[in-house]
Amino acid sequence: MRRYRRVLIPIVAAVALLAAACGSGDAGSDDNEIGGSEFDGTLVIGAIPDQDPEVLARNYELLAGFLAEELGVEVSYEPVTEYDAAVTAFRVGDLDLVWFGGLTGVQARLQVDGAEAVAQRDIDEQFTSVFIAGVDTGIDPIDSVEDLAVVAGHTLTFGSDTSTSGRLMPQSFLKQAGVLLDDLQGEPGFSGSHDATIELVESGTFDVGALNSQVWESRVEAGDVDLDRVQLIFETPVYYDYHWVARPELSDELKADILAALQKLDPADPDQAVILEFFGAASFIDTDNGNYASIEEIGRESGLIDG
Description:
By secondary structure, the chain is α/β, with parallel strands linked by helices.
């Protein structure tokens, strides 16, 4: 039994399946056609819960439908409520393909021998975090990692405790500035998501927040942030972050088809543009496990990865 399958909504692309069945004996089929790999069962995808659950469900179900049509298999999105739950579900085989952050992706792969990073967004090669602060805190925008020393003595909230962009990398940059968690006012908060971090700083519950730069920019662009109450004070140096990780049971052919399908997403197609917009990306590109070696190193130094 799959532990998280209480709310499982398979999405079947009947048209694609019928077309695949009708064309199975066609010797003249295009060798570059996506969906030629064999897969028995439902491909279950998941993601770390880094944004509002309703937003995640709506957009990942759109993606599941797209993948089902392109791959010619049943695809289902299964939500989880915590970052750790996504790692656990991947480890025990409840999720086949998961959208992880840098840290959770490393954690998941270390627990599943043969798991493979297969795709990332174009923006994940040079991803960043941002620090935001309440306008009335007296903290002005800063220009360098060293200037993060101004955060000392203030209250601060991260996102999830295992978020790469909302905790691991911001804490690493704070350490470079000589700011340890003990230098903050009180214990740091863990909001659980990037959206919640913005809300907590905007409301004055915390002076400072650290979060995913892409979420910050998209919320500002959508007019969902009161810039009279909260402001951007610093954008970090770049690092690798989000990526799709596949379990070893998925064949090399299927993983290649998944990558090809993701790369096929076209911003000129209105339906596919919605998916790309949700991910904040112009396109998806290939990646490999080695790109996250520095994340693993920082995770071990921070005690977030054992060993």
